[in-house]
Specification:
This is ATP-dependent dethiobiotin synthetase BioD. GO terms for molecular function: ATP binding; dethiobiotin synthase activity; magnesium ion binding. This protein is α/β, with parallel strands linked by helices. Helices cover 37% and strands 21% of the residues.
């Protein structure tokens, strides 16, 4: 898997930390890694964005590429329109990812929000990017009630577009999981139409010192992603 698209069932569910864990594990295996953030929203110029956070956690050996930045914390299409800026389009994203693919062993394309959040006013989404790249999508989802429905909807959208769903990673696993969270570990692969559960990143992982984050990252991801985690 040279290119992986990292999406989610919503926003603020741990996509960036999961992307950083993937990058950290790959780097520890001696692979070269680039992270591509097509559209960064809600961050002012000069401030660190999601791609910068991946580098901070995973290590400076990771290359960070950001195609567009819009100041308001909105869907990329809306943020671009309100800022009077051109949107980032799927063809541009796919071209950037393909160029990185020729230079790095692994390219991680981190989306904004969920799979079908609009990139432009023509209705393009991250799903269109995955289809252009013929790349699998790793879906990040929360652990609590509601996650089965959100995951099933995302899986259905991927199947309808003939896009491979690589699997599911829980983006923030609670320190004291309740009944719903524990049951969801069993039920998430069913909701994802048979796609495997490939990890659970503990809540607060992004606040760990970077050296500890890199040391522990492999324990949060399943063998398919280079780690040792098992449900």
């Amino acid at each position: 898997m040279a290119v992986i698209v990292v999406s989610g069932t919503g926003t603020e569910i741990g996509k960036t930390v999961v992307t950083a864990a993937l990058a950290a594990v790959a780097c520890a295996q001696g692979r070269t890694v680039a992270v591509l953030k097509p559209a960064q929203t809600g961050v002012d110029a000069g401030e660190p964005g999601d791609a910068d956070e991946v580098v901070r956690l995973a290590g400076e050996g990771v290359a960070a590429v950001e195609l567009a930045r819009f100041p308001e914390p909105l869907a990329p299409a809306t943020a671009a329109r309100r800022a009077g800026m051109p949107p980032v389009r799927p063809d541009d994203i796919a071209a950037a990812a393909s160029k990185l693919d020729a230079e790095y062993d692994l390219v991680l394309v981190e989306g904004a929000g969920g799979l079908l959040v609009r990139l432009d006013d023509d209705g393009a989404t991250l799903a269109d990017v995955a289809r252009l790249l013929d790349a699998p999508v790793l879906v990040v989802t929360p652990a609590a009630l509601g996650t089965l429905n959100w995951t099933a909807l995302t899986a259905e959208a991927l199947r309808a577009r003939d896009i491979e769903m690589l699997g599911v990673v829980v983006g923030s696993w609670p320190a004291a999981p309740g009944l719903a969270e524990r049951c969801n570990l069993t039920d998430l692969p069913v909701a994802a139409a048979g796609a495997p559960l490939l990890g659970a990143v503990p809540e607060g992982a992004g606040a760990l010192p970077p050296t500890e984050f890199r040391t522990r990252a492999a324990t949060w991801l399943a063998p398919l992603l280079g780690g040792s985690w098992r449900p």
